[in-house]
Amino acid sequence: MKTILKHMQTLSSELETTIEKRTEEFEGRSEKWQESEKGEDFLVRTERLQEMLDELSQWSEELE
């Protein structure tokens, strides 16, 4: 079980880093791009990663 929790923590850390990078990238783009279909899709995917991170955190808490 400890191994699983360790892998989950590693994945959580990687997701956090990815979300931060994507958020910075989104915010660094022009308003026109942000409001475009590509920008909106990018934001939706980033939000889904955040949802996955939240779910992973909940699972980790339940296993501890």
What do you see in this structure?
The chain has 64 residues and is mainly α. The protein contains three helices and no strands. The protein has helices spanning 2-28, 31-35, 37-63. The protein is elongated and about 45 Å long.
Explain briefly what this protein structure is.
The chain has helices at residues 2-28, 31-35, 37-63. The protein has 64 residues and is mainly alpha-helical.
Q: Could you give a short account of the major beta sheet?
A: none
Enumerate how many helices there are, as a single number. 3
- Secondary-structure element string: HHH
**So what's the overall shape?**
elongated
Instruction: State the helical fraction.
Output: over 70%
Stretches where pLDDT is under 50 for at least 5 consecutive residues are none
How many beta strands in the DSSP annotation? Answer: 0
Strand content: under 5%
Mean pLDDT: 96
Give the distance, in angstroms, between the N- and C-terminal Cα atoms.
Answer: 9 Å
Round the Cα radius of gyration to an integer and report it. 15 Å
Kindly name the structural category. Answer: mainly alpha
